[in-house]
């Protein structure tokens, strides 16, 4: 039986593996169906991780050294697609692998993350990472004193528009309705910002550009088509949380979840099921930042070590 199973190989999972193995656990396996690194490896540039030797390096280069450090202390990477997590009668856990196989573990850290939903307009995939982004904190700086657009009407979209207004020369907020799901106070704050212009009852028909990246957006508005010439658009239309492995056969979840489908955890990253921890984007109220995910992983590992020690 494994001491600790870590599901997910992004910053949260790798950080958990590092702290667990360096902390003395001898039988720790990180399950990841691909190369370790996570979603951040697709980012074109990272500048906001403290202590970086080369600010502006790609996400792939940034994560390239993490696995060597983790494996040095004994973390094992098992290439596997996990399809479920179940708790046994003795309170240990069964990790269900694709193909019918399984592994047993005393404790589990789930760090499977979440994936930003795509809005579905033409050109979105083509220019993703070259003008289309889902993270204003990550990429907003690259549009300093330029005009940008934000797509969405929830709290995240409006909050990020306000954030971008501190960097960009102008921010267009595109929303398909007249009303917003965001808190009225947040919307009011955005409306009072002279650098933010609202374009409501509108959708993005197409993103266009060239080899250098995005040049603009074609919008469908109530007045007809509009050509919005912006080099960047930030889409905030929700997240798809990677929580399928926590679902039981009847469709319920193994542990308590938030309304958005994230794992409800305490400050120790402990879920409602003792011995089952969550870290990174899959946990409730995660800020979706690498530095936070790494911190979550460390906390989860330390908590898991204490839990495993209590079993003896």
TrEMBL record:
Q: Which Pfam families match?
A: Pyr_redox_2
Gene Ontology molecular function, alphabetical = thioredoxin-disulfide reductase (NADPH) activity
Cross-referenced InterPro entries, in alphabetical order?
A: FAD/NAD-bd_sf, FAD/NAD-binding_dom, Ferredoxin-NADP_redctase_2, Pyr_nucl-diS_OxRdtase_2_AS
Name all FAD/NAD(P)-binding domain ranges.
Answer: 3-297
Record's keyword terms, sorted: Disulfide bond, FAD, Flavoprotein, Oxidoreductase, Redox-active center
- What EC number(s) does its UniProt record assign? 1.8.1.9
Looking at the record's lineage, which domain of life comes first? Answer: Bacteria
PANTHER family per the UniProt record, alphabetical? THIOREDOXIN REDUCTASE 1-RELATED-RELATED
Family in the record:
Belongs to the class-II pyridine nucleotide-disulfide oxidoreductase family.
Q: What is this protein called?
A: Thioredoxin reductase
Q: Which organism is it from?
A: Campylobacter curvus (strain 525.92)
Gene (UniProt): trxB
């Amino acid at each position: 039986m494994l001491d600790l199973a870590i599901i997910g190989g992004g910053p949260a999972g790798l950080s958990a593996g590092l702290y667990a193995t360096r902390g003395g656990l001898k039988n720790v396996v990180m399950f990841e169906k691909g190369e370790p690194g996570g979603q951040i490896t697709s980012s074109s540039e990272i500048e906001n991780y403290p202590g970086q030797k080369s600010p502006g390096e790609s996400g792939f280069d940034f994560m390239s050294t993490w696995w060597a450090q983790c494996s040095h202390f004994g973390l094992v990477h098992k290439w596997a697609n996990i399809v479920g997590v179940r708790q046994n009668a003795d309170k240990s856990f069964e990790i269900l692998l694709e193909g019918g196989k399984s592994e047993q573990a005393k404790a589990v850290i789930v760090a499977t993350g979440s994936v930003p939903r795509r809005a579905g307009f033409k050109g979105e995939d083509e220019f993703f990472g070259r003008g289309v982004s889902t993270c204003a904190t990550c990429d907003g700086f690259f549009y300093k004193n330029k005009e940008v657009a934000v797509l969405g009407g929830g709290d995240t979209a409006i909050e990020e528009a306000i954030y971008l207004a501190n960097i960009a020369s102008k921010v267009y907020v595109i929303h398909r309705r007249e009303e917003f799901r965001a808190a009225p106070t947040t919307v009011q704050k955005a409306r009072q910002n002279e650098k933010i212009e609202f374009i409501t009852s509108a959708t993005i028909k197409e993103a266009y550009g060239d080899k250098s990246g995005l040049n603009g957006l074609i919008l469908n508005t109530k007045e007809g088509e509009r050509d919005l010439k912006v080099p960047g658009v930030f889409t905030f239309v929700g997240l798809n949380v990677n929580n399928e492995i926590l679902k039981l056969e009847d469709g319920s979840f193994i542990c308590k979840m938030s309304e958005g489908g994230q794992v409800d955890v305490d400050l120790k990253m402990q879920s409602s099921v003792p011995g089952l921890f969550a870290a990174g984007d899959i946990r409730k109220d995660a800020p979706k930042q690498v530095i936070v995910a790494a911190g979550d992983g460390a906390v989860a590992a330390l908590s898991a070590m204490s839990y495993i020690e209590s079993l003896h």
